[in-house]
Amino acid sequence: MSPDLNPDLSPNLSPNLSPEKMLKTYGIALTGGIGTGKSTVADMLRARSYEVIDADQLARNITAPGSAALTEIANRFGADCLNADGSLNRKILGSLVFQDSGARRDLEAITHPRIRAALLQHVDTLKLDKKPRPFFYEAALIFETTSAPLFRTVWATYCPPDMQAQRIIQRDGVTAEQAATVVAAQMSSRQKADLADVTIDTSGTPLTVAKQLDDLLKSLKDIAPDSTKT
Fold first, then answer.
1. pLDDT the model gives residue 15
2. 164, 189 in Cβ contact below 8 A?
3. Which of 27, 132, 197, 200 could connect to 23 by a Cys-Cys bridge, CB 3.0–4.6 Å?
4. What is the pLDDT of residue 220?
5. DSSP state of 88
6. How far apart are CA 219 and CA 87, in angstroms?
7. Does residue 112 contact residue 73 with C-beta atoms inside 8 Å?
8. Of 126, 157, 146, whose CA–CA distance to 27 is shortest?
9. What's the pLDDT score for residue 129?
10. What's the mean per-residue pLDDT of the chain?
């Protein structure tokens, strides 16, 4: 798909611009399957002085000890999903929902609305009405949560399935069978790339990935001419 990255945007937007409007005007979702290099690209963006909001960190924030979300999770999945200090045991919770679609939907009903609210709160702190600039939201579940329309555009990382599996094996120390199971449980990286406005091929060297990224970032200059860092 052809990304619409260069509409005529006024730098003098309303000072009362809502977080939802800021997200739609300046927010770029960065997604991709496990092992496709999404976090690597996010780190490259940070190194170029772009704001990157991490969905995983928002999830940790909203499930902190004492939070309403953590209480609901413990009520639904049992105290076994908590550590001795009262924090969430993500490994145990993950094992409970990994292959149980009903349990996964219950968890998503608890966490996703709160993550979205936390995202909007963070966006509001960026004061984009005063200093317009693009920013990124790194999240694995953009299409699965029907969140794509909330953003200006969606970028997806992609590499061939065999490379994706090998990266998971090397990173997580799992077997080929376990890696295949993890990949099969998610929306395919090819499907995400097809749905995205922009695809970043991460199968090459870090230099080739960086070159793709820098070329894409040049296309953002019309959002806020002084904001593109390369």
1. 54
2. yes
3. 27
4. 87
5. B
6. 42
7. no
8. 126
9. 82
10. 89
Q: Which residues on neighbouring strands pair with residue 32, listed in sequence order? A: 157
199 by DSSP, 3-state: which?
A: strand
Question: What sign does the dihedral 21-192-89-72 (CA atoms) show?
Answer: positive
Q: What is the pLDDT of residue 10?
A: 37
Which position has the token pair 């937007």? 13
- For residues 185 and 188, give the distance between their C-alpha atoms in angstroms, rounded to a whole number: 9
Tell how strand 198-201 and strand 52-54 pair up: unpaired
Q: Which CATH number fits domain 13-51+134-223: 2.60.120.560, 3.20.20.70, 3.30.420.10, 3.40.50.300?
A: 3.40.50.300
What is the reported pLDDT for 230?
39
- Rounded Cα–Cα distance for residues 201 and 159 (Å): 6
Question: Which tokens belong to 110?
Answer: 């608890």
Pick out the chain residues at pLDDT < 70. Answer: 1-16, 222-230
User: Nearest 10 degrees: CA dihedral of 169, 174, 177, 181?
Assistant: -90
Q: What is the DSSP string of 37-82?
A: SHHHHHHHHHHTT--EEEHHHHHHHHTSTT-HHHHHHHHHH-GGGB
Share of the chain above pLDDT 90, in %: 79
Specify whether the CB–CB gap between 176 and 165 falls below 8 A: yes
The confidence score (pLDDT) of residue 101 equals 87
Picking from 7, 49, 55, 9, the residue whose alpha carbon sits closest to that of residue 29 is 55
